[in-house]
Amino acid sequence: MAEASAPVRGFADAGADLSLVNVSKRFPGFTAVDDLSLEIPAGSFFALLGPSGCGKTTTLRLVAGLEEPTAGSILIGGKDVTLAKSHQRPVNTVFQSYALFPHMSIMENVAFGLRRRRIDNADTLAREALDLVELAHLAHRKPSQLSGGQQQRVALARAVVNRPALLLLDEPLGALDLKLRRQMQLELKEIQSEVGLTFLHVTHDQEEAMTMADTVAVMNQGRIEQMGAPVELYELPKTAFVATFLGQSNLFTGKVGNSTSDTMTISAAGVGITVPLSRAHVHRGTVTVGIRPEKVALHRHKPADGNRTVLGPGRVLDASFSGVSTQYLVAVPGYADVTVFSQNTSESDSARNGDEVYVSWSPDHAFGLSDHPVGDSGKFAADTDTGSLAVAERERLEAELEES
Asked: Quick one: 198 and 156 in the same domain?
């Protein structure tokens, strides 16, 4: 067999776009991915974010060719790869477990795939990839001689060296400690910008997705709940699931009463809570309004500013010091407990358990959701765990079989 020669193109080549068109993946008694469609532009850093069991890893495996969809199409760079085997797709995957060959040197690990393909400049390309992750000086060490973060970078170099059009990252930082994970988040983003490939990153870590990704898609029960830039999803969540999964939110439900050309006000436990119409997804009927804890201020006395939404008096149930801020849980009669993140400016300003306080915020920071609790339960329609969904789906299928 004649040797192939891979041109040294550098790592600035653009990746390919990825399209999922009405993709579903059904297992016996359960639908893991449900009619999913999305477009990921070439050269972007895209994150699939969601809890365990939401379908994000199954989606990644479908793109990688490790699972075959039950329905729908997958296109990479405009080419339909739905039925293509994993080795026939221009993709590489970086897993949480680094999967390095322990008996090989770092250089041999990175060059392994190139040598298998008989690429004649494998060592040159491997060293170029190690330079990219700043590990060329450790090329002759074994994986056991490296730290967890260094091993993760080797795994990344091994994936990038093949110049895939699409790089898949499956919880790649999950095994690292907090400090190293944050460092690697910044390094991954920098590497992605430098290599110009398309990154599809699967994670359950909200901070990780928001730190690195250009676009985040929040998955829930096999579907995309909301997709957009990190700041858009955080500041203007569409549903209660997004509002509470992507950070924390205080939620208040009531009927819309007074409205102006710019704002609407809901009545919740006798207090008017105002939100700009431009920050609300529903403008009439029953609406749930949210406010992020860091946008809420804590007061010892009722604030005189009539332009702020004020709740209270209430009692501090818990005060948790975290260094940068203190998280307060405040019980206000008529409402669910209110969470407040207060920046630590001085010890004398802090409140303690049992203190009487008021909470307030600017209406301009509030947002209105598209959904609201069902009945008097206080729960939203999406408040169902994966296990109960699987049981319900199995019972439905069994009933259909009995009828037929």
From this structure: yes
